[in-house]
Amino acid sequence: MIEIIISLLLLLGTFFVISGSIGILRFPDIYTRLHAATKAATLGVAGVLLGAFVFLYVENGIISGKLILGIIFILITAPVTGHMISRAAHQTGVRLWKHSIRDELKNDQKKNNA
Amino acid sequence: MTLQIILNILIALMWMFLKESYDFLTFFTGYLIGMALLFFLRRFVPDAYYLFRVWKVVSLILLFIKELILSTWNIVILVYKPKLDVEPGIFALPTELKSNWEITLLANLISLTPGTLSVAVSHDYSTIYIHAMDLPDVEEEINDIKNSFEKAIMEVTR
Asked: Residue A114 pLDDT more than 70?
């Protein structure tokens, strides 16, 4: 029973990581790619670490604090990296995908400069 | 809040001395007893009962996890869709939150919610610019974030 839960966590985690990687390749511009990189990868890595945590506890009786800390740090840092990369991209003038419908940040910046 | 936590720890320590057993389990029982005592005497202790606030923090974390799972699911669906029929865009979210800490929290939460990614914060901290994966209705998106996250954060910090 517990093996099923562990393998489910590991498989789901790897599935999300792979989906995120495919998303990075497939999506059209940097902003949509960051969506895939920040969200899917975060949950994927968290799932793998959680699986490892449960495995270590059931198999060896170790409560591994490092794995829990790893999950927390990833949850904190992933959105920050996404924010920084997208902000840097927007400030250096990377265009949005051609099907994008609005860009209020650009409009507001123009207003401030004018 | 801090006073109440210190009081609670003191009650737990007193319990340990009364029981004359100095291990974690006794401390834990003492802490539980302290929690109950503070709850029944909450009229005489300054500030609101601190566990109410702790409960709000916990519910914020649960909300965060729920949104993370939902957003990953949405992204996965988009990844495997043969044709990418979305309308992405950047919209401005006016926010009532003031301090650095609150805005950081809100931006982080937005980044991990379905279909949104915070791009920039304006210099006067009044607006957060958000890139959305699919943006058919801006008003709805803004109301969504305002009603769920901003409210939850305000309940914790104010």
From this structure: no
